[in-house]
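Quick one: sequence plus zinc ion SMILES, need structure tokens.
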Amino acid sequence: MPANKRKAFLLAILALLFIAVLFSPPDKVYPELNPAPWENMPISVYIDDKNIPPHYSPSYRVQVEKALEYWSSGGSGKLGYIPEFEIVEEDNADILIMWVENLQKDAGVPEGVAGFARPYEVNGRYERVEIVLEVGNYQGYSWRQYGDANMREIAKHEIGHALGLGHSTDRNDIMFPTYDQKDDINPLLVQKTLPLIIAGILLGLALVFYHGGGWLHSRKKRERLEEDIFGEKDK
Ligand SMILES: [Zn+2]
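Reply:
Sure thing.
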């Protein structure tokens, strides 16, 4: 490829890189999946402590109630509204909370995920959110049941999702993904990382192209030099 064409190609890639970086949103914005997911207050919550796995502890329900209180009394301060909850006994509630023995085994989620929240969104509002919590996980080869404090933290985190919050990059924030890695429910994360992935691919292409082209170029130069010196082409 002629040098001026190569230069134009490189310039085009640099321009694309610039655009990709320009359109990637700032990293430090606190992720909010939905700033106002619930239309009416209070939000009804059904805690299913009837269909329970073998290692369910009766104290878990109390931990979920405490996690709800955490958010209704201000939570991490990152919500733009104060939620009110009403615990109901019908399973057609706004938020449904249930337990399974092990998420990896019972719901096919990746290893290390302790809970997940699955929001059903209609016209920008949450119609319903299902929260599934596991009661324990494997640590090495042995299965360990979660203690109450652990269950409370997992519940707080998942309820945070049900209230419209995404993951935090702050390790001390309850929305930091320590207990679950259910990143695939977070559309913001994809938006944020996609331009970076594209930029990475373009940069890789540019490097390969540049070095590849440079190498070809220098080989031709060497061949010409050899021709001059030895009077004939090497091959
Ligand atoms: Zn999460």
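The beta strands are 43-47, 85-87, 95-100, 115-122, 125-134, 136-139, 142-145. The longest strand covers residues 125-134.
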